[in-house]
């Protein structure tokens, strides 16, 4: 069994290259949770999936809390909603840095932070990657699978599916703002099915879309 670190927030001490926040605000929603996890949930940036005030991914916003609720359903999350206890699950963003209200990441800032996200993802070395929303899903499929050119980035169709990656299984999650009534149930059912399987054998093993 791997034992990366017991630190919960920013376990590898990443220092992002820029800080555009106020003096009393978090500089980033750093990677958070169980650094020895098999499941890695990957969001976009704090302004959309939460963490501008708490510094914790998937808190504060409706979209972030919807993802957190699904994690609670399968036993990955417990405790306070603003600082949950994550077990066998790690959460991070492709753009970890917080931005002033009303600002969104630029292509350049995504590019600046890519190496930090990649380093953390490879250090966690989870079996299952769960990108949330179009931006994160596009990045994960491009960088960690050979499937991006074969797939339409249709999040409705990709939601809660299984896609073979380069050493990972990828399970895309549609942005909760676009969920219909059955989407949380589909995600929870998929995660429960993976947990009931020998998912640790999925690295390098072909899986299916749908």
Automatic annotation (TrEMBL):
One of its GO terms (biological process) is DNA repair. SUPFAM superfamilies: Uracil-DNA glycosylase-like. Residues 30-177 form the Uracil-DNA glycosylase-like domain. Residues 1-26 are annotated as: Disordered. It comes from Natronorubrum halalkaliphilum. This is Uracil-DNA glycosylase. One of its GO terms (molecular function) is metal ion binding. Keywords: 4Fe-4S, DNA damage, DNA repair, Hydrolase, Iron, Iron-sulfur, Metal-binding. It comes from the Archaea. Residues 1-11 have a biased composition (Polar residues).
């Amino acid at each position: 069994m791997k034992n990366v670190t017991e630190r919960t927030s920013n376990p590898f001490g990443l220092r992002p290259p820029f800080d555009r926040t106020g003096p009393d605000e978090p500089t980033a929603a750093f990677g958070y949770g169980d650094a020895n996890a098999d499941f890695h949930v990957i969001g976009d940036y704090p302004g959309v999936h939460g963490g501008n005030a708490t510094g914790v991914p998937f808190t504060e916003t409706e979209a972030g809390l919807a993802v957190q609720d699904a994690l609670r359903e399968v036993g990955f999350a417990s405790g306070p909603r603003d600082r949950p206890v994550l077990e066998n699950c790690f959460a991070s963003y492709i753009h970890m840095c917080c931005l002033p209200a009303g600002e969104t990441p630029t292509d350049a800032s995504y590019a600046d932070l890519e190496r930090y996200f990649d380093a953390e993802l490879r250090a966690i070395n989870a079996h299952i990657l769960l990108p949330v929303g179009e931006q994160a899903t596009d990045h994960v499929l491009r960088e960690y699978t050979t499937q991006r050119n074969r797939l339409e980035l249709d999040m409705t169709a990709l939601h809660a599916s299984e896609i073979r990656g380069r050493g990972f299984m990828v399970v895309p999650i549609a942005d909760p703002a676009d969920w219909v009534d059955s989407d949380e149930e589909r995600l929870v059912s998929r995660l429960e099915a993976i947990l009931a399987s020998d998912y640790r054998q999925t690295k390098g093993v072909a899986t299916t879309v749908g």
